[in-house]
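Letters spell out the chain; backbone shape is given numerically. Take this protein:
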Amino acid sequence: MKKGIIGGTFDPFHNGHLHIAYEAFDKLNLDKIVFIPTGNPPHKDYKNVTDALVRYNMVKKAIANEKNFEINDYEVLKDGFSYTYETLKHLRKIEPDTEWYFICGVDCLIDLDKWINVACILDLCRFVVFLRPGYSEEKVCKQKDAIENKYNKKIYLINLPQMDISSSYIRERIKNKKNVSYLIPCSVEEDINILNLYR
């Protein structure tokens, strides 16, 4: 079994996340994509992040009809900060025969040396980076080579057709009472309206 992990704050979950999931699923020939909403992300001021269970339920509803997608609540239910190496250890423990692919943006690769227990992360999964606008290919390749040489592990780069959507852009549009229906799944828009989020 080959499963891809897409983690994130998902505040809110949007069509760009689905786009990455579909593309990674096909390009990596995966059996499943697992979305893992963060609980308390250590790199953000979590006091300004929407409640974890609200974000979890947004993702759960948005992927409810996707047979190749699933969601995991480990980080949402976990006490304290959410660290990638701990999540990967947990996943390997409950599914020891699964080959895990950790899928993230190029910004994660650039900042990877700032993460906790990088060597452990690279031991527990295949680290897959999708390219985003705003980063030079030269800079990305240089960082990729540096990480591979430092940890003696391979980093996988994949090119995806770009959808330049961000959660912060969506929040800003909602705050300014602008339409976001073309950027997010219908169920996410319903939750945002019912719970009066991002106003």
